[in-house]
């Protein structure tokens, strides 16, 4: 009996958007209007690439970025939840699927000593160039019409499950924990024994209830959360059953 926990990162594990949090490093803690207005829907990664060039051009170094990123707050109850999962790793496989980047997630998890809780992190690859600029790339290419150009979370989840099956690992239940519009695609892939846990009052919850109103509800169970303690209570019930 093993459960797969799939976490989004921004506004789910951390209570902010890691990509906008980095702006605290910019001169006057803000971006010029021209740069801010250069974002095109579905092309977030390219936009962040321009933000990182701007930070580099303004002399923002890796150390300062790391210091800033490790002050990002965790969502209420999340520290307790991750501690609980860490203590029960024999029951839970745990992955992150996020539109953030490898550098930010790695810094944040390691600073809080939570990196061991997660088996794999699927996010946009980032690295510092020889000139000290942070660079970011799209996670993969895909053909999903619903998702941003750089990441279809359903594709990531499906490929992970296929790979696990080849290793002889299958899951009693998948629990998907997220908040955003790009979490809907993987939630629609879940089966009736699985559970989607959208964050209360955020886009994912609204999109799931809109589907129910349109009489095409998702197949899985839906359980909203406002504190990660709600998620922990659910997981405790699961392992009791």
UniProtKB/TrEMBL annotation:
Keywords: Hydrolase, Magnesium, Metal-binding. The active site is at 8 (nucleophile), 10 (proton donor). Coiled coil: none annotated. One of its GO terms (molecular function) is metal ion binding. It comes from Spizaetus tyrannus. Belongs to the HAD-like hydrolase superfamily. PHOSPHO family. This is PHOP2 phosphatase. InterPro entries: HAD-like_sf, HAD_hydro_PyrdxlP_Pase-like, HAD_sf, Pase_PHOSPHO-typ. It holds the Pfam family Put_Phosphatase. Mg(2+) binds at residues 8, 10, 179. It comes from the Eukaryota. Substrate binds at residues 19, 99. SUPFAM superfamilies: HAD-like. Its cofactor is Mg(2+).
């Amino acid at each position: 009996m093993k459960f797969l926990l799939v976490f989004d990162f921004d506004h789910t594990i951390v209570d902010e958007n890691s990509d906008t949090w980095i702006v605290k490093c910019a001169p006057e803690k803000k971006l010029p209007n021209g740069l801010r207005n250069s974002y095109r829907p579905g092309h977030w990664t390219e936009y962040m690439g321009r933000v990182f060039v701007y930070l580099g051009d303004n002399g923002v170094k890796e150390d300062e970025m790391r210091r800033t990123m490790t002050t990002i707050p965790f969502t209420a109850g999340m520290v307790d939840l991750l501690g609980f999962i860490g203590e029960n790793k024999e029951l839970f496989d745990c992955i992150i699927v996020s539109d953030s980047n490898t550098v930010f997630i790695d810094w944040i998890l390691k600073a809080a000593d939570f990196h061991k809780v997660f088996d794999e992190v699927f996010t946009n690859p980032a690295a510092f160039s020889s000139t000290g600029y942070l660079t970011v790339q799209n996670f993969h290419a895909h053909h999903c019409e619903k998702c941003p150009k750089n990441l279809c979370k359903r594709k990531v989840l499906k490929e992970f499950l296929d790979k696990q099956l080849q290793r002889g690992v299958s899951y009693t239940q998948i629990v998907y924990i997220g908040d955003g519009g790009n979490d809907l695609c993987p939630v629609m892939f879940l089966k009736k024994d699985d559970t989607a846990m959208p964050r209360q009052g955020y886009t994912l919850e609204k999109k799931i209830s809109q589907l129910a109103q349109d009489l095409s509800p998702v197949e899985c169970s839906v359980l909203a959360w406002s504190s990660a303690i709600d998620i922990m209570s659910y997981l405790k019930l699961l392992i009791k059953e």
